[in-house]
């Protein structure tokens, strides 16, 4: 059954609105995904949908009708809502016509042991950067992202938006550095970090067949002890007055070089 909801005081809407807070996401294990295409991707990849909100004005679209039926089929609560309600949930004007409430999902390190390429992020702080890195890894078919130590929430509204749906196809794991470093050695991963102290350009470096790209956080880069644990440090060449790139851009530049060395394995024609 599809419920009709027009009040922002409805219990489901109050829950959806509260998922912009990390505390609520932690307590409920839920997060928001916006847009029919992205919600559809989550369903297609087997993520558990708890509730679906859609605009009554969008109900004439066959894709939205099909999505609502699919949500009902998997046992999710489905509500037809007003544009005002959607804007209240999304906290912005001109909100997407479809919003899904999904269960969060984290991957174990053991599930990544056969991956050819992993990105490890040291205490990343900016959810926009994290979402963009998810999207980048998805584009190149990487194995997953490991968040090291205390990092921003991969299921925050900002990170999910920046991922453009890639949150559903990018395995994410969490670990402390010592445990992760031991694990990657056990499974034969080469650990390569980016650093201004790097001795080689990224294009002159052999990243190996199983690679972890270790990126330092936005403020201070890799701690010295972590850099010393790397099998190699690389640097990105600079020409102008700036001495560094945005974290997400630096990750993308280096990740694409690693993929190039793998002959762009899996690339679509």
From TrEMBL:
Residues 10-100 form the MRM3-like substrate binding domain. Residues 117-256 form the tRNA/rRNA methyltransferase SpoU type domain. Coiled coil: none annotated. Keywords: Methyltransferase, Transferase. The keyword Transferase applies. Signal peptide: none annotated. It comes from the Bacteria. Pfam families: MRM3-like_sub_bind, SpoU_methylase. One of its GO terms (biological process) is methylation. GO terms for molecular function: methyltransferase activity. Belongs to the class IV-like SAM-binding methyltransferase superfamily. RNA methyltransferase TrmH family. This is RNA methyltransferase.
């Amino acid at each position: 059954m599809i419920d009709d909801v027009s009040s922002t005081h409805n219990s489901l809407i109050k829950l959806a609105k509260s998922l912009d807070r990390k505390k609520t996401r932690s307590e409920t294990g839920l997060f928001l995904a916006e847009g029919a295409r992205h919600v559809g991707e989550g369903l297609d990849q087997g993520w558990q949908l708890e509730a679906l909100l859609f605009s009554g004005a969008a109900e004439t679209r066959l894709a939205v009708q099909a999505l609502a039926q699919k949500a009902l089929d998997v046992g999710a609560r489905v509500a037809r809502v007003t544009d005002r309600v959607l804007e209240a949930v999304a906290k912005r004007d001109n909100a997407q016509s479809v919003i899904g409430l999904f269960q969060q999902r984290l991957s174990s390190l053991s599930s990544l042991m056969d991956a050819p390429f992993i990105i490890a992020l040291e205490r990343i702080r900016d959810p926009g950067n994290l979402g963009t890195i998810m999207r980048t890894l998805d584009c190149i078919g990487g194995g997953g992202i490991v968040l090291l130590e205390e990092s921003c929430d991969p299921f925050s509204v900002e990170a999910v938006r920046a991922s453009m749906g890639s949150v559903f196809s990018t395995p994410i794991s969490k670990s402390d550095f010592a445990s992760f470093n031991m694990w990657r050695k056990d499974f034969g991963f080469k650990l390569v970090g980016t650093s201004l102290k790097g001795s080689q350009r990224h294009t002159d470096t052999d990243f190996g067949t199983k690679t972890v790209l270790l990126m330092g956080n936005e403020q201070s880069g890799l701690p010295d002890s972590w850099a010393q644990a790397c099998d190699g440090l690389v640097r990105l060449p600079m020409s102008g007055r700036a001495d560094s790139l945005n974290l997400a851009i630096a990750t993308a530049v280096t990740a694409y070089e690693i993929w190039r060395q793998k002959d762009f394995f899996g690339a679509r024609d």
